[in-house]
């Protein structure tokens, strides 16, 4: 199968996903379950990584800007920009692509190879709409909150790392993060998050839904899904940065 | 009645079904038999619309399934119950939730009414007191019974079973066979079973279609299968010494 055929099949899949749910109360229950599985269960890992990476960013910045001509507040400013522009939306979404992407592919793929998807179709249920739409909406709804949490914790981690190491003062860091605050950068980060969330929910779903074979094929599809999700996040990150910031 | 006319289906240039035509008797237990790779599962999945045939038609009481509008297709789907080879129960749902699922999706019954219906069908398949168990906590035979309960919960007109005995011990296989036949008679369902199991052929087959290399090689009743002189059927059905002896006894009796 050529790449172009995969692209076509992916968009054909989306056409079937975006249909009106057959029963709203069942859809609502599925949506809440996906918010828990894809969102709430990812809070721990995102908090942990954001906090420590924020600290590392601040320490690295402090060590590389060690000059009497550069004010210490610049450390907070640089750390804030790095975290808001790239670390929180892009790095965290790549982590989510690994964690959530493999979960989506393996759960849908296992349903495919055990004929559960066939069972849904025989009953007259649009399996793509039933399985994938709640995942897309859960990711689009929840990941912006998760990324804002990552921003806050990353910046806090930077402050704590500086204070604990003595490389810069907490006051300078806070002055730095207040300097030249541009709200559009948050909008930019949220636009990126929404695009990445859509990729995280749909690309692994595609790999899981069309898997053929047994458990080995599901494992292989999970790996491919994570690789392709990451590649698409990186490419769309470049395109969005070009479009929104230049 | 289910009528199949000149059905062709292939994958990646390989023809699996090569012009099959047959009819399945209404309110009876119809069996599709044949060796592994003879196209039984593809045939069954083509009947229920999981595979779209390249040529030919399948009609359900005169209605051709490939000509349905989207709305008609949805209605037709609800007339069908299917028991998959591996049961295909939803892992994350309990027995009760699995059986209730079609009712939740397609009816406006209250929770109490749905629960009542679920308990009725679970009792019918002899599965009381398992409502809150997950599929993983059940034996293979119990999973098959849950799958049958889920398939009949909407009172289907047609029941399809893909190798319902696979992976079961002979005793449990007979229990499942008898259960399917009782349900067929009780609810007047047109049942189509895909099987390898020769016990099923002799015990419950009212109409038998034998597939060989993608073509219909023979069809008849379970009575006919004892007396047939079709070499392909005889070598497939009477492959074991026990069945050869059973056939001999039958033929001696009728002579």
UniProtKB/TrEMBL annotation, chain A:
Pfam short name (any one): MlaE
Keywords assigned: Membrane, Transmembrane, Transmembrane helix
InterPro entries, per the entry: Permease_MalE (IPR030802)
Superkingdom, taxonomy of origin: Bacteria
Record GO terms (molecular function): phospholipid transporter activity
Coiled-coil annotated residue ranges, if any: none
Residue ranges of the TM segments: 42-63, 83-101, 122-142, 148-171, 183-206, 226-245
One GO CC term on file: ATP-binding cassette (ABC) transporter complex
Protein name: ABC transporter permease
Lineage, highest ranks first: Bacteria, Pseudomonadati, Bacteroidota, Flavobacteriia, Flavobacteriales
TrEMBL record, chain B:
InterPro entries for this protein: AAA+_ATPase (IPR003593), ABC_transporter-like_ATP-bd (IPR003439), ABC_transporter-like_CS (IPR017871), P-loop_NTPase (IPR027417)
Domain annotation ABC transporter: ranges: 2-238
Keyword annotations: ATP-binding, Nucleotide-binding, Transport
GO molecular function, one term: ATP hydrolysis activity
Keyword Oxidoreductase set for record: no
Keyword NADP: no
Source organism superkingdom: Bacteria
PANTHER family, per database record: INTERMEMBRANE PHOSPHOLIPID TRANSPORT SYSTEM ATP-BINDING PROTEIN MLAF, PROTEIN TRIGALACTOSYLDIACYLGLYCEROL 3, CHLOROPLASTIC
Protein's recorded name: Putative ABC amino acid transport system, ATP-binding protein
Species of provenance: Polaribacter irgensii 23-P
């Amino acid at each position: 199968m050529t790449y172009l055929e995969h692209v076509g099949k992916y968009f054909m899949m989306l056409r079937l996903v975006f249909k009106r749910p057959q029963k709203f109360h069942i859809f609502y229950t599925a949506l809440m379950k996906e918010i828990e599985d894809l969102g709430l269960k990812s809070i721990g890992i995102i908090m942990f990584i954001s906090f420590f990476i924020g600290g590392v960013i601040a320490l690295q910045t402090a060590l590389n800007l060690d000059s009497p001509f550069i004010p210490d507040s610049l450390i907070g400013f640089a750390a804030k920009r790095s975290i808001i522009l790239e670390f929180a939306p892009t790095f965290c979404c790549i982590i989510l692509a690994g964690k959530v992407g493999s979960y989506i592919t393996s759960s849908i793929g296992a349903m495919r190879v055990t004929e559960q998807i066939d069972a849904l179709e025989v009953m007259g249920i649009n399996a793509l709409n039933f399985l994938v739409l709640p995942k897309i909406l859960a990711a689009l709804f929840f990941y912006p909150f998760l990324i804002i949490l990552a921003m806050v914790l990353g910046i806090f981690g930077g402050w704590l790392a500086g204070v604990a190491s003595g490389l810069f003062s907490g006051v300078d860091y806070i002055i730095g993060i207040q300097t030249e605050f541009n709200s559009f950068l948050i909008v930019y980060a949220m636009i990126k998050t929404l695009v990445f969330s859509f990729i995280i929910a749909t690309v692994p779903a595609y790999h899981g839904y069309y898997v053929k074979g047994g458990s080995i094929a599901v494992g292989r599809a999970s790996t491919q899904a994570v690789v392709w999700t990451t590649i698409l996040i990186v490419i769309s990150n470049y395109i969005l940065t070009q479009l929104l910031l230049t | 009645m289910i009528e199949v006319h000149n059905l062709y289906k292939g994958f990646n240039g390989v023809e699996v079904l090569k012009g099959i035509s047959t009819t399945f008797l209404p309110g009876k237990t119809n069996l599709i038999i044949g060796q592994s790779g003879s196209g039984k599962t593809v045939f069954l999945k083509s009947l229920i619309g999981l595979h779209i045939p390249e040529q030919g038609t399948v009609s359900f009481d005169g209605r051709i399934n490939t000509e349905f509008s989207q709305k008609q297709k949805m209605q037709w789907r609800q007339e069908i119950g299917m028991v998959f080879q591996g049961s295909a129960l939803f892992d994350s749902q309990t027995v009760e939730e699995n059986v209730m699922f079609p009712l939740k999706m397609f009816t406006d019954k209250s929770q109490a009414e749905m629960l009542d219906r679920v308990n009725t069908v679970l009792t019918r398949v002899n599965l009381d007191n398992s409502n809150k168990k997950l599929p993983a906590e059940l034996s293979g035979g119990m999973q098959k019974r849950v799958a049958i309960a889920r398939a009949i919960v909407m009172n289907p007109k047609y029941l399809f079973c893909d190798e319902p005995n696979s992976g079961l011990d002979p005793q449990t296989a007979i229990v499942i066979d008898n259960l399917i036949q009782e349900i067929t008679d009780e609810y007047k369902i047109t049942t189509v079973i895909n099987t390898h199991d020769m016990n099923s052929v002799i015990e419950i087959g009212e109409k038998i279609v034998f597939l060989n290399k993608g073509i219909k090689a023979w069809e008849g009743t379970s009575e006919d299968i004892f007396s047939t002189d079709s070499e392909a059927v005889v070598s497939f059905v009477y492959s074991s010494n026990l069945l050869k002896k059973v056939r001999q006894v039958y033929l001696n009796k009728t002579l």
